[in-house]
Design brief:
The protein is mainly α. The termini are far apart. The chain has two domains: 104 residues, no CATH class; 105 residues.
């Protein structure tokens, strides 16, 4: 019975860059760990909330499970390792925003409204979809053109959500900072949205160029109109030695 192919070959224990992916996941885990510790320290002398303790415990548990699974694999294929690796990385990705939301959620809604947080939440939901499509497209994009096209669309959607959510948060902060002052933030807000639209346009152009190369048919090379000039070795007469001179 043959072993089942992993869901995430790039995160498998026997992948070419398995140790690099492991260190990257552990580095991502340092973000929610640092956020939890900083928020706990900022709230002293009050006792930290249960949400911060839960985030800290989940981060440490994820690091421990991943380290044990890696030690067990010893650089060889281990059933279920790639899925466990992805789930732990996804946990680290969403824990940071969740911890920040537990502390600053009401202030963010009051500052920028509900739409920027909703777009960030949708971005986090689309993260596993983009990773799965990326793994399904594989290193050779032309071997799976439809999966690669879906990955391009998902990546562009993620970029739109990220840009709009960040600009929405910054715009809300700018408007709130200028309340009670005679300054008009309209010019700054217009500049922010123009930069956001330019970033989105650049992403669309890059995705369109990659998509056009994906479905481009490669034909045989065209023959040269003129033959190349003869080299010195071709023009020189063959050398004769010994009796071949006569």
């Amino acid at each position: 019975m043959t072993a089942r192919a992993p869901w995430f070959p790039g995160l498998s224990a026997d992948a070419r860059l398995a140790d690099v992916e492991l260190r990257l996941t552990l580095a991502i885990g340092l973000l929610p760990l640092g956020i939890a510790l900083l928020l706990m320290a900022a709230g002293l002398p009050d006792w930290p909330s249960p949400g911060l303790w839960a985030g800290l415990g989940l981060t440490l548990a994820g690091m421990g499970v991943l380290a044990l699974r890696w030690k067990r694999s010893r650089g060889r294929y281990l059933r279920g390792y790639s899925t466990t690796h992805f789930l732990i990385r996804y946990l680290f990705v969403i824990l940071g925003p969740i911890l920040l939301w537990l502390v600053f959620g009401e202030w963010v809604i009051e500052l920028a409204g509900i739409w920027p947080p909703l777009m960030l939440a949708l971005l986090l939901v689309l993260y596993p979809v983009g990773r799965i499509l990326r793994e399904r497209s594989g290193p050779n994009a032309q071997a799976a053109p439809y999966a690669t096209t879906a990955y391009f669309i998902c990546r562009q959607t993620q970029m739109v959500l990220l840009v709009f959510s960040l600009v929405g948060l910054i715009s809300g902060a700018v408007v709130d900072a200028n309340e009670g002052y005679p300054t008009d933030p309209t010019a700054l807000l217009l500049a922010l949205w123009v930069l956001a639209c330019m970033a989105l346009l650049a992403g669309v152009v890059v995705s369109a160029a990659q998509w056009s190369q994906l479905f481009r048919r490669t034909g045989p090379p065209q023959p040269l109109d003129d033959l190349p000039p003869p080299t010195a070795a071709d023009a020189a007469p063959p050398q004769r030695y010994g009796s071949e001179k006569f």
